[in-house]
Here is the input.
Amino acid sequence: MGWVVGWKKAVFLNNGWPLLLAAMVLTEPIHVPKLTVMEVNIKPETESRLTELASKSGRATDDLVEDALAGYLTEVAEVREMLDGRYDDIKSGRVKPIDGEAFFDSLRQREDELLKQRNPK
Here is the structure.
């Protein structure tokens, strides 16, 4: 068996070996990644919504779940990175933390002032 370079499509046989189309074989051993199966339990309402979306979109439910999960994990990683950066900013002193109650009190006051300006009695 050899390394496969430049393959355009692969079809896997029942025994796990790839049937290669448009491939060039070299002398190194081949490693073909396999998909792993994971069971995910979802609520019946979610399953119903997923099935309905699959029907309307013409996409497989597996593809929809994969896309949704990949997007979610990307978003979580971005939020984690942002939070880590904010924490580093506070720890280094580049940013000064503020009291949450004091902030919301000042926000309410500004809102009240704007409302008074719009609707003077």
